[in-house]
Backbone:
């Protein structure tokens, strides 16, 4: 058959499909099933919500991909049969020797009574735009940021948003008090307590109040009811949406107990031969640290989806060349943590480190903010075919090798 079907063309899916195209002979088909032709650089939602970006600056068209030899199927994947390795859309069934599932997450505010009607969010392009409009007209008061469920994409994002919003309101002299409510014990718990404490101190120094280990029960009027019996009063409510595996995944036999797809952490294989899953849709266990009550899994971040896509593409290409798959994902990654005032921190390391992740955080500075800007530019250039994949890899490894 000589066909690989990649389902989902976000960070992980795009990298996988384009890397496959580069590595495979033109007799091989690379099919990419993606519901939307517009690719968005999601990390810039943080800048969008405070007016530092406009949508046009961070959205790129991917409908040119067929020119690069990728069969782009613009449509909804409605079924995945991992036994037969067939992906269904309303129009067709597509079979492959390999299926790579990179469908990300489904996000909504409707899991908590009252949240949908009351809260703003910045986990979608439209949501971030609406939040910017709301912040513009906000005259000051209590801002509550609630994390409505775990896990969620980009564990640093709520804390970055709090700091960016603090700066936005302070510069406009709109007296405000910002509070974060989260079920987490400290920020970014997978990175360990030291990083969590450092980030907590960073936000508290800027007057942001941190309320750990509370769940949002409901929203009534201008009050959030919390699991500890307290209420959080607000004038502006911002929620990190509840994240689920996409419905097509939850309905498929690939789904594990929580809907996410269990994978081997190093090879990204699922329990079905020839079927891989990567990025946010996967539950990637952290080796050696499985706890039956709370399985510790890799945080959901684009940097991991990206590197996993490279590993999967390389191993599929090896298979077609008759070689053993030899590439392994190593759990290394990093992120820029925007703190406002044109500065960012930089953190990351080895999440597969034993007995605990070996993770570091660099002092915030302008250079990390510029680093994120450079990455945004390079990534978007690559999406529209004007920059090479090597230019992104070179950037990523220069930061990782030098600073982690
Ligand atoms: C505000 C914010 C800031 C972030 N900042 C960072 C950061 O600084 N660094 C970082 O590493 N990560 C960051 N992330 C996380 C990062 O965006 C995700 O981890 C990453 O996009 C995951 O990649 P993915 O390929 O798994 O999924 P996605 O990129 O979400 O791609 C999934 C794709 O599947 C498509 N799809 C879904 N369902 C279907 C279907 N049924 N049929 C067809 N197509 C479908 C979607 O349209 C989408 O294109 C941030 C996230 C947010 C929300």
Residues:
């Amino acid at each position: 058959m000589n066909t690989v079907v990649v389902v989902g063309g976000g960070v992980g899916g795009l990298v996988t499909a384009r890397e496959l195209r580069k590595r495979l002979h033109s007799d091989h088909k690379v099919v990419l099933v993606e519901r939307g032709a517009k690719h968005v650089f999601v990390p810039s939602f943080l800048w969008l919500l405070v007016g530092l970006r406009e949508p046009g600056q961070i959205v790129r068209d991917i409908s040119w991909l067929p020119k690069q030899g990728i069969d782009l199927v613009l449509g909804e994947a409605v079924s995945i049969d991992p036994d037969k390795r067939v992906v269904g859309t309303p129009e067709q069934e597509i079979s492959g020797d390999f299926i790579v599932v990179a469908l990300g997450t489904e996000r909504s505010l409707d899991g908590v009574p009252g949240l949908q009607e009351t809260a703003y969010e910045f986990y979608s392009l439209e949501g971030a735009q609406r939040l910017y409009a709301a912040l513009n007209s906000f005259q000051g008061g209590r801002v509550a940021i609630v994390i409505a469920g775990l896990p969620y994409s980009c564990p640093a994002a709520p804390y970055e948003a709090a700091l960016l919003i603090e700066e936005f309101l302070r510069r406009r002299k709109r007296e405000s008090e910002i509070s974060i409510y989260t079920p987490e014990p400290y920020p970014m718990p997978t990175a360990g307590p030291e990083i969590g404490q450092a980030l907590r101190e960073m936000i508290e120094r800027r007057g942001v109040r941190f309320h750990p280990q509370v769940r949002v029960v409901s929203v009534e009027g201008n009050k959030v009811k919390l699991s500890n019996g307290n209420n959080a009063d607000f004038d502006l409510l911002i929620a990190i949406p509840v994240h689920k595996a996409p419905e097509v995944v939850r309905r498929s036999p690939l789904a594990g107990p929580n809907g996410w797809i269990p994978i081997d952490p190093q090879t990204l294989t699922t329990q079905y031969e020839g079927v891989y899953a990567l990025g946010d849709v996967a539950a990637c266990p952290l080796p050696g640290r499985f706890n039956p009550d709370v399985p510790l899994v890799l945080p959901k971040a684009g940097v991991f989806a990206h590197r996993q896509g490279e590993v999967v593409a390389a191993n599929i290409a090896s298979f077609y060349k008759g070689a053993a798959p030899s590439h392994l994902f190593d759990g290394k990654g990093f992120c820029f943590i925007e703190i406002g005032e044109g500065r960012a921190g930089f953190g990351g390391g080895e999440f597969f480190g034993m007995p605990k992740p070996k993770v570091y955080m660099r002092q915030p500075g302008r250079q990390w903010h510029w680093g994120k800007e450079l990455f945004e530019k390079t990534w978007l250039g690559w999406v529209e075919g004007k920059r090479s994949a090597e230019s992104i890899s070179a950037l990523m490894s220069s930061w990782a090798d030098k600073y982690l």
Notes: The longest strand covers residues 332-340. The chain has a mean pLDDT of 95. The chain has two domains: 3-105+245-328, 108-243.
